[in-house]
Amino acid sequence: MSGVDGKIVAITGASSGIGEAAARELARRGAAVVLGARRTDRLDALAESIRADGGRAEALDVDVTRRDDLDRLVARSVERFGRLDVLVANAGIARIAPVGDLDVDDWDAMIDVNLRGVLHGIAAALPVFREQGRGHLVTTVSTSGLKIVPGQAVYAGTKNAVRTALEALRQESTDGVLRTTSISPGFVRTELVDHVTDPEQRAQVQRTMSELGIAPEAVARAIAFAIEQPDDVEIGDLTIRPTTQG
Ligand code: NDP
């Protein structure tokens, strides 16, 4: 099966930014999308708007730190659309600050959402993929895991842990059932950095994002590119960043 049309795609973190853009892009190309996040008002509005444009979309309240919520997301895809072809494990938070500030609660929150949340998605989706004989895991990691910069150690660490888990899973799954893709965006103009706790860091990264950031639609197109490949072609790692990013 190649192309996006007709695929069933569940997306975490679909209420804004990259996840929302991916939902619109994939639905526009004929995928049925199952949207998960905590802000259900935004998810419902997005699903409604996709349906109004003739697409297929379902929305449900998902907190990726809760394993059961990922099980519900996968189950809903199968109940509503008969199967799950792709899980885009995209939900993430960036509480950027120097390690020495010892913001332990922020470290825990990033580990819970960015790492544990993706692992919960793998745990929920893999049994379904194995039963179906095929499936595709796409994760949104980051260029900050590729180039170490001050202030992003724990954030980058969670992203690199996901990259590592996916690569190990890929090597463990050479029977042709599973495709894995790690998308590494650079600066993208979204709400991500509005939640940075440290005011100085927040102002700095907000400036960088508004000056350099590319649109989330660019990452959405990269996600669609990975998904549209024929079953025997796996896009493993994709980096997508502003041309001017150092
Ligand atoms: P946004 O803040 O716009 O989106 C983050 C999404 O994650 C929201 O939909 C949010 O939904 C969801 N989310 C956060 N916590 C949870 C949770 N506990 N359970 C479920 N969903 C959750 O930022 P982006 O679109 O930029 O971020 C998307 C991904 O891209 C993240 O993983 C981020 O790390 C990654 N990324 C972003 C870059 C950028 O420059 N913007 C660069 C590199 C990677 P809600 O609050 O409604 O639950």
Secondary-structure blueprint of this entry?
Blueprint lengths: L7 E5 L4 H12 L3 E6 L2 H13 L3 E6 L5 H15 L4 E4 L14 H29 L2 E6 L12 H20 L5 E8 L13 H14 L3 H13 L8 E4 L6
Parallel strand pairs: 1-2, 1-4, 2-3, 4-5, 5-6, 6-7
Termini gap: 38 Å
**Strand segment count:** 7
Q: Tell me about the biggest sheet? A: 7 strands, parallel
Task: Give the topology string: H per helix, E per strand.
Answer: EHEHEHEHEHEHHE
Structural shape: globular
Q: How many domain regions?
A: 1
Unreliable stretches (pLDDT < 50, length at least 5) are: none
The CATH superfamily bears the name NAD(P)-binding Rossmann-like Domain
- Class from helix and strand fractions: alpha/beta
CATH topology: Rossmann fold
Identify the CATH class: Alpha Beta
Count of individual helical segments: 7
Q: How much strand?
A: 15-25%
**Small molecules bound:** NADPH dihydro-nicotinamide-adenine-dinucleotide phosphate
Looking at how many chains there are and whether they match, the oligomeric state comes to single chain
How much is the radius of gyration in Å? 17 Å
Numbering strands along the chain, what is their spatial order in the largest sheet? 3-2-1-4-5-6-7
Percent in helix: 40-55%
Task: Supply the CATH architecture.
Answer: 3-Layer(aba) Sandwich
Mean pLDDT: 96
Could you explain the architecture of this structure?
This protein has 246 residues and is an alpha/beta fold. It has a single domain (8-240), classed as Rossmann fold. It is 47% helix and 16% strand. It has seven helices and seven strands, in the order βαβαβαβαβαβααβ. The chain has helices spanning 17-28, 40-52, 67-81, 104-132, 153-172, 199-212, 216-228, and strands spanning 8-12, 32-37, 56-61, 86-89, 135-140, 178-185, 237-240. The chain has a seven-stranded parallel β-sheet, sandwiched between helices. NADPH dihydro-nicotinamide-adenine-dinucleotide phosphate binds at residues 12-19, 37-39, 62-65, 90-94, 113, 140, 142, 185, 187-188, 190-192, 216. Residues 7-190 form the Ketoreductase domain. It comes from Saccharopolyspora flava. One of its GO terms (molecular function) is oxidoreductase activity, acting on the CH-OH group of donors, NAD or NADP as acceptor.
